[in-house]
Design goal:
The complex is a heterodimer of chains A (about 425) and B (about 300).
Chain A: H1 8-22, E1 41-46, H2 55-68, E2 72-77, H3 84-93, E3 100-102, E4 144-147, E5 150-154, H4 155-160, H5 170-182, E6 186-189, H6 195-211, H7 215-220, H8 226-229, H9 231-243, H10 255-263, E7 267-272, H11 276-282, E8 289-293, E9 306-311, E10 314-316, H12 323-335, H13 337-347, H14 360-371, E11 375-376, H15 391-400, H16 408-421
Chain B: H1 19-53, H2 71-77, H3 80-110, H4 116-130, H5 133-144, H6 149-156, H7 168-196, H8 200-208, H9 213-224, H10 226-241, H11 245-250, H12 262-272, H13 276-309
Classes of the chains: A alpha/beta (about 425), B mainly alpha (about 300).
Chain lengths: ~425, ~300
C-alpha cells in the first residue's frame, strides 16, 4: 500500500525546522537592526505601564530626545504579558528582544543578556548604581530612589485617638494601634495580592537591617535562615490579626482598593513606599496625611536604615543592534535634568541634588530620606544581594497564611523550605 | 483419461492509475498541506518544544539551557505547591463541569422553543462568555471583594463582611461560581443544538403513551442527547483544567495561594520565578492528565450511550 500523501512528512519537517529557527535558536544577539528608510534608527524600549506611568506619559517623555536626535525614533512598548518580567523572556525566546528595558534590575540571570555599563562615565553617578552592581559591574542605571519603609497616617485619626507623636518603636506602634482601635478606627490598612508580604517587608526593614545588616548576603550564603530571622515580625503581625488591628478579611482587598480605602479615611495608617505620595497628591480628602519612618525595636537607633530601591531602572540588551542610540537614550533618561525631574514627579520618587516642586507629604519623605543613616535593599534585594527570583512572591503567599490559620512558625518554615528548594 | 488441467485464469494486470488519479494525489497533498502545516506549527512544535524544555534547566533568559534529564519531573513529585494546585484544579474541574452542564442543560430546556423571548434570553445567557476572563475577574472582584459592592450593602445593613475572596473555601467556591457564570452560555448553545436533533416523533409518541414531562425528559430527551452530553462534559473538563486568566484577575491565586490552579502555577514558575524548564515539566504533566481524563470520560460516556441504545 503506498502512502497516499508522500509530501506530508517533508512539509512537516520543513515546518519544524522553520519553527526551530524562529523560536529556540533566537535567544539573544540575533535581533535585526531596526533601521528604516533614510537612516532612521528605531530604538525599542519595553516599559512598565501603571496608573502613574501611562503609555501617553512615556511617549511624551521621550519626545524631546527624539527632537534632539532626528535620526532616532524611540518606540515605547507596553508589556504583552502580565508585566515586563513576563514579557522580556517571551521576547527573548522569540528573538524579538527590545533594545532597552525599564523596571527590572540585573541579577545573575538577567545580567548575561545585558550590556555592561561600567565603562560609561555617567553610569556610576546614578542613584544606587553601586549598590545594584553585580561583581562590580554596572548593568542597571536608575532615575531616582524609592523609599520603602514608610508609614503614612491620617493626622486627624491620630488626634482623635490622642496620639501626639508618631510611634518610634514597635511596642509604641502596637500601643498606638490599640488607641486607634478604641477610638473606632481600623488601625492599619492592608490588602491581598502582593500587598500583604510587601508591607511586612517594608515595615520590618529598618529593624531587621540593624539586626542583620547584610541580611540578603547572609541568607544567600546559608549563614542565616530568612524565615527564622523574620519570625519575631511574623509573631507580631499575628497578634495584629488577633486583636483586630488589621482587617481579618483584608486578603479580599486589591492593592488599588487598599490605597483608596486609606485615602477615603477608612483606616488610620498605611505602610507603603514613597510612590504613594503621587496617589496622595491626586486624591481629594478631608484629612491631612502625614508620614513617619517605620519603627524599630526597643534599643535600636531611630530612624533606622531606610529600605531603598532604584526608581525607574533601565538596562540595555546586549543583543541590541542600535547600541550607540540605546546608550544615548538611557544616558538622557537618567541624567537629563528635565527628563529626570519629570520621571521623579510622575511616580513620586526622589533623587539627591535634584530640586523639584514638592507636595507637603513629599517634603516629609525627602526629609526622611535625608535623615536615614543608610539605604538598604529589602526582600529579594538587588545586585550582589539578590535572593532567588520569586522570593518576594513566596514570602507574600506564606505571610498570607497568617490570615488563614497558619502559625508564625509554620510561615517561617514555609519561607525557609521555599528557599531551600531554590538552592 | 487424461486429466487436463486448465490453466488458471490469468490475473488481469492492475490497470495503471489514470493520470487524473495521480493529479488527484497532488491536489490532495496540496489541499491537506495547509492544515498539516498549521497542525504542526500550532500543536506538534509547541508540544515538542515543551517536552524538550522540560528536560532542561532553562530560566527563560540564558541562551544555553543545560540538559538535566528527568530532574524537573522528579522535583514535581516533591512539590507541595503543585499538589495543592492539582487538588484545586481537580475540584474546579469537577464542580465546574457539573455546574456548567447542569445550568447549560437546564437553561437550554427553558429556552428551547422558537420565540422572540427565547432568542433574547439566549443572547443574554451567552453574553458573559463574550467577555474576556480578565474583565470578568476584575468585575466580580469589584462586586465580591472585601470592599466590594455586596459587602458595602451587607455592612450598611449591619451585617458582617462576607469573605468571598478572603477565606480559602469561600474563594474557591466563588471562583467556581464565576467560572460557571462566565462559561455556561456555551453549554446552553451546544445543548440547544443537541435538542434540535431529538426526533419530535419520539417525544410525541411518549406523550401519547401517557408519559409525564419528567418521564419524557428522563427516557427520551436525555438518552437522545447522549453525544451532546459527552461533548459538553469533555469540553468543560478540558477548559476548566486549564483555568488561568480568571485566577489572575479574581483572586491572584490567594488567599495564601489557596486558589492557585496548575495552569496558574505553570505560568508563575515559568516567568515569575524564571524556571521555564520546571514550568515546562508541569505543563507536560498537565497535558497528559488532561488527555487521559478526556479519554476516560469519552470512553465511559460512549459505553453509557451504547448501553442506552441496546
Amino acid at each position: 500500500m503506498r502512502s497516499p500523501h508522500p509530501f506530508l512528512a517533508p512539509t512537516a519537517l520543513s515546518c519544524l525546522l522553520l519553527l526551530t529557527g524562529c523560536g529556540g535558536g533566537g535567544f539573544a544577539g540575533d535581533s535585526q537592526a531596526k533601521q528604516g528608510e533614510g537612516g532612521q534608527i528605531t530604538v525599542r524600549m519595553l516599559v512598565n505601564i501603571t496608573p502613574n506611568l501611562t503609555q501617553a506619559y512615556w511617549d511624551g517623555l521621550v519626545k524631546p530626545f527624539e527632537q534632539a536626535n532626528p535620526g532616532v525614533d524611540v518606540k515605547v512598548e507596553a508589556p504583552t504579558g502580565k508585566g515586563v518580567a513576563d514579557t522580556l523572556p517571551q521576547q527573548l525566546a522569540a528573538g524579538n528582544a527590545p533594545d532597552v528595558v525599564e523596571t527590572l534590575t540585573a541579577d545573575e540571570t538577567l545580567s548575561k543578556q545585558m550590556l555592561d555599563l561600567t565603562d560609561q562615565p555617567w553610569a556610576k553617578d546614578t542613584p544606587l548604581a553601586k549598590e545594584a552592581s553585580l561583581g562590580g559591574k554596572i548593568y542597571t542605571v536608575g532615575v531616582g530612589v524609592q523609599a520603602q519603609s514608610l508609614v503614612f497616617y491620617n493626622k486627624s485619626a491620630f488626634d482623635k485617638a490622642g496620639i501626639d507623636k508618631p510611634p518610634a518603636t514597635l511596642d509604641e506602634f502596637d500601643a498606638a494601634m490599640g488607641k486607634l482601635k478604641t477610638a473606632g478606627w481600623l488601625p492599619l490598612q492592608t490588602g491581598g495580592e502582593f500587598l500583604t508580604g510587601l508591607q511586612l517587608l517594608q515595615f520590618s526593614g529598618p529593624s531587621r537591617a540593624q539586626l542583620h545588616p547584610t541580611w540578603q548576603q547572609d541568607v544567600k550564603a546559608d549563614k542565616l535562615k530568612a524565615g527564622e530571622s523574620l519570625l519575631p515580625y511574623l509573631e507580631r503581625y499575628r497578634t495584629w490579626i488577633d486583636k483586630g488591628y488589621v482587617d481579618k478579611n483584608a486578603l479580599g482587598t486589591k492593592y488599588a482598593d487598599a490605597e483608596t480605602a486609606f485615602l477615603s479615611g477608612k483606616a488610620a495608617m498605611y505602610v507603603m513606599g514613597s510612590w504613594f505620595t503621587a496617589a496622595e497628591a491626586k486624591s481629594t480628602k478631608d484629612f491631612e496625611v502625614g508620614v513617619f519612618p517605620a519603627p524599630v525595636d526597643k534599643g535600636q537607633a531611630y530612624p533606622g536604615p531606610q529600605g531603598a530601591t532604584m526608581a525607574a531602572p533601565y538596562m540595555i540588551l546586549k543583543s541590541t543592534p542600535n547600541k550607540d542610540a540605546a546608550l544615548k537614550l538611557v544616558q538622557w533618561l537618567v541624567t537629563d535634568q528635565a527628563a529626570v525631574k519629570s520621571q521623579l514627579k510622575q511616580d513620586g520618587n526622589f533623587r539627591a541634588g535634584v530640586e523639584r516642586e514638592f507636595t507637603p507629604l513629599e517634603k516629609q519623605v525627602q526629609q526622611i530620606l535625608d535623615s536615614a543613616p543608610s539605604g538598604v535593599p529589602q526582600g529579594e534585594g538587588y545586585g550582589d544581594a539578590t535572593l532567588p527570583k520569586g522570593f518576594n512572591a513566596a514570602w507574600n503567599t506564606e505571610v498570607q497564611g497568617l490570615y488563614v490559620g497558619k502559625s508564625p512558625k509554620e510561615v517561617a518554615e514555609g519561607v525557609d523550605r521555599w528557599l531551600a528548594g531554590r538552592k | 483419461m487424461t486429466l487436463t488441467r486448465e490453466a488458471p485464469p490469468a490475473i488481469p494486470e492492475a490497470p495503471a492509475l489514470p493520470k487524473t488519479r495521480r493529479g488527484d494525489g497532488w491536489a490532495t497533498t496540496i489541499m491537506v498541506a495547509p492544515a498539516t502545516v498549521l497542525y504542526t506549527v500550532m500543536l506538534i512544535v509547541p508540544v515538542g518544544l515543551a517536552l524538550y524544555l522540560s528536560l532542561t534547566d532553562w530560566d527563560g533568559f540564558s541562551a544555553d539551557p543545560a540538559f538535566v534529564g528527568a530532574a524537573n519531573y522528579l522535583d514535581l513529585l516533591d512539590d507541595p505547591e503543585l499538589r495543592r494546585a492539582a487538588l484545586v484544579t481537580l475540584l474546579v474541574a469537577a464542580a465546574g463541569t457539573a455546574g456548567l452542564n447542569l445550568l447549560g442543560l437546564g437553561f437550554a430546556l427553558l429556552v428551547n422553543g422558537a420565540s422572540k423571548a427565547n432568542t433574547f434570553f439566549r443572547i443574554v445567557l451567552f453574553y458573559p462568555h463574550v467577555l474576556s476572563a480578565l474583565v470578568v475577574g476584575f468585575l466580580w472582584s469589584a462586586i465580591l471583594g472585601t470592599n466590594g459592592a455586596v459587602n458595602n450593602l451587607v455592612t450598611k445593613w449591619g451585617g458582617e463582611v462576607l469573605p468571598f475572596l478572603s477565606d480559602p473555601a469561600w474563594a474557591t467556591v466563588t471562583m467556581i461560581g464565576v467560572l460557571v457564570w462566565a462559561g455556561f452560555g456555551v453549554n446552553v448553545v451546544l445543548y440547544l443544538a443537541g435538542l434540535q436533533a431529538v426526533p419530535h416523533s419520539l417525544i410525541e409518541a411518549a406523550r401519547i403513551d401517557g408519559a409525564t414531562r419528567w418521564q419524557v425528559f428522563r427516557n427520551v430527551t436525555l438518552p437522545a442527547l447522549g453525544p451532546s452530553v459527552t461533548v459538553n462534559i469533555v469540553l468543560s473538563l478540558v477548559t476548566l483544567l486549564k483555568t488561568y486568566d480568571l485566577v489572575v484577575s479574581l483572586t491572584a491565586g490567594g488567599p495564601a495561594g489557596q486558589t492557585q490552579t496548575v495552569a496558574y502555577l505553570i505560568l508563575w514558575n515559568s516567568f515569575h520565578d524564571a524556571r521555564l524548564g520546571f514550568g515546562s515539566a508541569q505543563s507536560v504533566l498537565l497535558m497528559l492528565v488532561t488527555a487521559a481524563l478526556a479519554f476516560v470520560v469519552t470512553k465511559l460516556r460512549r459505553r453509557g450511550e451504547l448501553a442506552v441504545h441496546q
